[in-house]
Amino acid sequence: MTTEQKQLIKATVPVLKESGMLLTTHFYQRVFSINAELKNTFNMANHQNGRQPMALAMAILAYAENIDDPSVLLSTLERIGHKHTSLAVRPEHYTIIGRHLIASISEVLGTAATPTLLDAWTAAYEQLANLMIGIEADLYAAQETKPGGWTDWRPFVVNAKIADTSGNTTFYLYPVDGERVTDYGSGQYLNVRLFMPELQLFQPHPYRLESLSNGLYYSIVVKREPGKLGSVSNRLLDEVQPGDHLDLSAPAGVCPIPILTEPPTVVAHQGGCPMHQVP
Ligand code: HEM
């Protein structure tokens, strides 16, 4: 990117932030009306409550603010990369999202969106997309080479579904292929993907992995989400039975510290992640 382009980007960030909700709402409407297949990748319930719509476009604006030194955002990008790889986001998706972002900026800014400005935003987005595609390629490669690892979605069967007295239900999930499953660390999660007939869409939902890694199966705790339309958790609780199949992403999330089979002797904190030391 040229120095002039960086200046232009920084000058428009405040304007775009002021119109943040307008920009992000417009952006997502555009994405979902033109590329409706992406509704299978996003959790549409998060869009109804307005939580997610801000995240993607706001992250792009935060990047633009730090265009002189994007390295300050690396740990954030790494966290987003984990999220993306657990949802099977691929490089071709970046092209689609970039197209909608630039068109949205143009449509929201109107005549203020000169060709020079749009070129600058295109260059900024491409730079960010390439950074993220690189981070995600490394994460996918690591997932693939881990024993029992995989990328994208792997079919699992519900082996058991056990409710506790607090109303939560633990699901025990075994891979349909009967092969090993990869280990995970404290704080990691995986996404469960279910077909939701009322939406005619696949929908993902993240669940934290809390028990010990065992190489054979995963267990997740599912809590009811009262009144939430299109809730994957409610469908798991009400409709999914032992013997049914689900798609799972591989464990993801920063802080991949092995969950121990023995209690730790030392517990310290480093960079916000719980650290355990084996005796
Ligand atoms: C430079 C481009 C992108 C940026 C800066 C970005 C940023 C973000 C951020 C900040 C989050 C929230 C992370 C969290 O909750 O921890 C997120 C989530 C997500 N992103 Fe991206 N993203 C980008 C590109 C993409 C692309 C190309 C796709 C694929 C279509 C995508 C799909 C998603 C999905 C599905 C989620 C989870 C949202 C949900 O729960 O529904 N993102 N992204």
Any overview of this molecule?
The protein is built from eight helices and ten strands. It has two domains: 3-145, Globin-like; 154-277, Beta Barrel (Elongation Factor Tu (Ef-tu), domain 3). It has helices at residues 3-18, 20-34, 44-48, 51-65, 74-85, 91-109, 115-145, 232-238, and strands at residues 154-163, 169-175, 185-186, 189-196, 201-208, 218-222, 245-248, 257-258, 266-270, 273-277. Helix 2 (20-34) packs across helix 4 (51-65), helix 5 packs across helix 7 and helix 6 (91-109) packs antiparallel against helix 7 (115-145). It has a six-stranded antiparallel sheet with strand order 5-4-7-1-2-6. The model is unreliable at 256-279 (pLDDT under 50). With 279 residues, the chain is α+β, with helices and mostly antiparallel strands. The N and C termini lie far apart (51 Å). The protein is elongated. Strand 9 and strand 10 form a beta hairpin. Protoporphyrin IX containing FE is lined by residues 38, 41-43, 46, 52, 55-56, 59-60, 79-80, 83-84, 87, 89, 93-94, 97, 128-129, 132. It catalyses: 2 nitric oxide + NADH + 2 O2 = 2 nitrate + NAD(+) + H(+); 2 nitric oxide + NADPH + 2 O2 = 2 nitrate + NADP(+) + H(+). GO terms for molecular function: FAD binding; heme binding; metal ion binding; nitric oxide dioxygenase NAD(P)H activity; oxygen binding; oxygen carrier activity. It holds the Pfam family Globin. Its EC number is 1.14.12.17. Residues 1-137 form the Globin domain.
